[in-house]
């Protein structure tokens, strides 16, 4: 039976773009880097990427010094705002996590900045559902390495663990750790046509209905 479930955050558990865009516009306007405000769709294609990789794409003429300063300000603004204003938690997430947590150990691994998962947990009041979590901002490592960290420090058996996410990075990082992958097709990403997933879900609550080795997840 599958005992452990590791979740991505953005596009899997919630959508925080409306709050993130507010933080980004505030900082970018301060530094006079935008002629018109960014909109949610401007961020969608970057969801799941590491923050240091996003600004050079948006502003190819920027300098490393500018990016370091702007990233620091964006991170501070995001985490402060998210913990109170939050984002849109997908339908039936709380109910499904409650069901799953009765028979499974739950975890989060995200490419977000340090403090972002904590802000999500503070806003959602979901801390009690999760045994552990890790982020790129806290370790400086990519998602593949952070999944491995969570597996190792919690002594999780990959054969009894699945990863649930919505991007190609999620898929590649989890399968590199020999984990089965569940694709959230309601999220922000798409998968290559050759990707072989364990399952694909249209809504979060479908997780509670999946079968693993002929046994229900729940």
UniProtKB/TrEMBL annotation:
<dbReference type="GO" id="GO:0008967">
    <property type="term" value="F:phosphoglycolate phosphatase activity"/>
</dbReference>
<protein>
    <recommendedName>
        <fullName>phosphoglycolate phosphatase</fullName>
        <ecNumber>3.1.3.18</ecNumber>
    </recommendedName>
</protein>
<dbReference type="GO" id="GO:0006281">
    <property type="term" value="P:DNA repair"/>
</dbReference>
<dbReference type="InterPro" id="IPR006439">
    <property type="entry name" value="HAD-SF_hydro_IA"/>
</dbReference>
<dbReference type="Pfam" id="PF13419">
    <property type="entry name" value="HAD_2"/>
</dbReference>
<dbReference type="InterPro" id="IPR041492">
    <property type="entry name" value="HAD_2"/>
</dbReference>
<comment type="pathway">
    <text>Organic acid metabolism; glycolate biosynthesis; glycolate from 2-phosphoglycolate: step 1/1.</text>
</comment>
<dbReference type="InterPro" id="IPR023198">
    <property type="entry name" value="PGP-like_dom2"/>
</dbReference>
<dbReference type="InterPro" id="IPR050155">
    <property type="entry name" value="HAD-like_hydrolase_sf"/>
</dbReference>
<comment type="similarity">
    <text>Belongs to the HAD-like hydrolase superfamily. CbbY/CbbZ/Gph/YieH family.</text>
</comment>
<dbReference type="InterPro" id="IPR023214">
    <property type="entry name" value="HAD_sf"/>
</dbReference>
<dbReference type="InterPro" id="IPR036412">
    <property type="entry name" value="HAD-like_sf"/>
</dbReference>
């Amino acid at each position: 039976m599958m005992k452990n479930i590791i979740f991505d955050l953005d596009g899997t558990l919630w959508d925080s773009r409306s709050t993130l865009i507010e933080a980004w516009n505030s900082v970018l306007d301060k530094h006079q880097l935008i002629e018109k405000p960014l909109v949610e769709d401007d961020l969608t294609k970057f969801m799941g990427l590491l923050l240091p990789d996003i600004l050079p794409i948006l502003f190819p003429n920027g300098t490393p010094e500018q990016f370091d300063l702007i990233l620091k300000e964006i991170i501070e603004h995001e985490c402060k705002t998210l913990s109170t204003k939050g984002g849109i938690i997908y339908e039936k997430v709380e109910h499904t996590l409650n069901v799953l947590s009765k028979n499974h150990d739950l975890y989060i691994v995200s490419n977000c900045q340090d403090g972002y998962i904590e802000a999500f947990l503070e806003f959602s009041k979901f801390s009690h559902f999760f045994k552990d979590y890790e982020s790129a901002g806290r370790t400086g490592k990519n998602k593949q390495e952070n999944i491995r960290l969570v597996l190792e420090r919690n002594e999780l058996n990959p054969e009894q663990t699945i990863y649930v996410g919505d991007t190609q990075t999620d898929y590649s990082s989890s399968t590199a750790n020999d984990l089965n992958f569940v694709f959230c097709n309601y999220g922000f990403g798409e998968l290559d046509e050759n990707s072989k997933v364990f399952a694909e879900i249209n809504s979060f609550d479908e997780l509670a209905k999946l079968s693993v080795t002929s046994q229900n997840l729940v």
